[in-house]
Every structure is written in C-alpha cells, then in structure tokens.
Design goal:
It contains three helices and four strands. The chain has helices at about 15-20, 30-40, 55-65; strands at about 1-5, 25-30, 45, 75. The protein has a four-stranded parallel beta sheet, with helices on both faces.
C-alpha cells in the first residue's frame, strides 16, 4: 500500500515525512524544485499545475495516480500530520 502526501506551497513543513519517511509527496510541477530542496531524500511526484486545485480536485488526482498501482491501494495523509 502506498502512502501519499498531497501538499501545496508548504515545502518547509511537510511534517508527515517525519512519521512516514517512505511516503510520496504529491505537488504541483511548478513547486517541485522547492520541495526537493527542502526535503532531500524524499520521494516527490508532480502533477500538472492545471490538475491542482481545491482538496476534492487534488484527491481525485491522487486517486488516479494510485490507480496505476497493481492493487490500487493507498492512504492519503495531510502534510501537517506529526504523529499517530
């Protein structure tokens, strides 16, 4: 099962990576460089800026990305989660 962290404009505060270090951060393409610089070693996947938007729209994009996995299973975690 994949753990995905949708994020927008918060490259310096992806606290969820502390809890889920193997998760994939999903960001708009225009923000990729900032996320990679602020989160070295993290797996960052981009989506086109035009596919980004409100929370529902981003969830749909995340769901379509995970559908490419063999089992399609994923958990989406808020980027500001700092513990369980």
């Amino acid at each position: 099962m994949k753990i995905l962290i949708p994020s927008y404009n918060r490259a310096r505060c992806v606290f969820a990576l502390d809890v889920f270090p193997t998760a994939t951060v999903i960001v708009p393409a225009s923000q990729e460089a900032d996320y990679r610089r602020c989160n070295p070693g993290a797996t960052v996947q981009t989506i086109p800026d035009t596919d980004d938007g409100n929370l529902s729209r981003k969830r749909n994009v995340v769901a379509s990305l995970s559908g490419k996995e063999p089992d399609g299973a994923f958990v989406a975690v808020d980027d500001d989660v700092c513990g369980l």
